[in-house]
Amino acid sequence: MANQSPSKNVKSLEQKVQELILKKLFIKVNEDELIISKVDLIVLILRDLITLAKSNFDIETALKLTLEENADYRKNPNIKRNELKQWAIEFKIEIDAYRSYQTSVADNRPEAIILSEVHSTLNTEPALLDRKLREIIYESLSEKITDAQTGPMGIDKRELISKYCDYVTLIAESDSIDQAVDKLMISMKLSPEDRIRRQESLKEGMMRIASFAGDEIDAVELAVTLRDKNVEYYKILVKVKEELGLDA
After folding, report:
1. Which residues have a Cβ under 8 Å from the Cβ of 4 and sit 6 or more positions away?
2. Could you give phi then psi for residue 161, rounded to 5 degrees?
3. How far apart are CA 23 and CA 118, in angstroms?
4. pLDDT tens, position by position, 168-225
5. Residue 16: closest CA among 106, 117, 129, 124
6. In the chain, which stretches have pLDDT less than 70?
């Protein structure tokens, strides 16, 4: 049998690590007021993060390396210095992920272990996942709740959708409607008498929301399941969008 040369498409460990970080940056970097494409921006940020990791968060050392590699920044180094300071704070987790890769490579650890450690480090921002998931649920509900429905009732559409997002998450993270109602009443700090008086009406309202937003609740339940399995945030959000028929 003839010897086969290795595929040119096989990714190096460095490429795999960078890809994990890039996917995290893609969901973390906001698109508001960007003057360049999001993809171009996160590639630029990744370069700075790697430099910061190699410099052990030392801004001046990172700046020196950056200026050596890119002459354009030498015209006004303070701009790049301020960017590096910002990235060091805003993307500390991603920098730590790359540093863990560097340390593990130096220790000759197996590739699978290295990638697992990088992945686990990147998956330590539950608030980010919750915020991005809420944005998706908001987008989905926006297609169901229209101005024509809320306008005549004098209800603010955005406020209503925001409340529905809260209820969708509450129901999805509860074992039953009854448990969701109990959690809601506790958050409302109702007296025992008021809880008894309002329990049935709150349950009826919750059941209506569960019927109306069933797809969104199922999507959040899926996200919770994937989150508990430590799936990449990027993959979780893509899967939720697919389940709701939204553009990824």
Report:
1. none
2. -65, -40
3. 12
4. 999 999 999 999 999 998 998 888 888 888 899 999 999 999 999 999 999 999 999 9
5. 117
6. 1-9, 33, 151-153, 248
pTM recorded for the entire structure: 0.87
Q: What is the DSSP string of 36-96?
A: S-HHHHHHHHHHHHHHHHHTTT-HHHHHHHHHHH-GGGGG-HHHHHHHHHHHHHHTHHHHH
Tokens (6 digits) for 34 = 């960007």
**What is the amino acid identity at position 155?**
I
Q: Can you list the positions of beta strands (E) in the chain?
A: none
C-alpha distances in Å from residue 95, one per residue of 22, 88, 118, 151, 242: 12, 8, 10, 47, 30
The pair of structure tokens assigned to 71 is 């002459």
143 neighbors 241 (Cβ within 8 angstroms) = no
Q: Burial of 160 by CB count in 10 Å (0-12 exposed, 13-18 middle, 19+ buried)?
A: middle
Amino acid code (one letter) for 92: K
Under DSSP, the state recorded for 18 is H
- For 145, what's the count of Cα atoms within 13 Å in the CB-facing half-sphere? 24
Give residue 110's Cα distance to chain centre: 28
Q: Compute how many other C-beta atoms are within 10 angstroms of the C-beta atom of residue 100.
A: 19
How many CB atoms within 10 Å of residue 78? Answer: 9
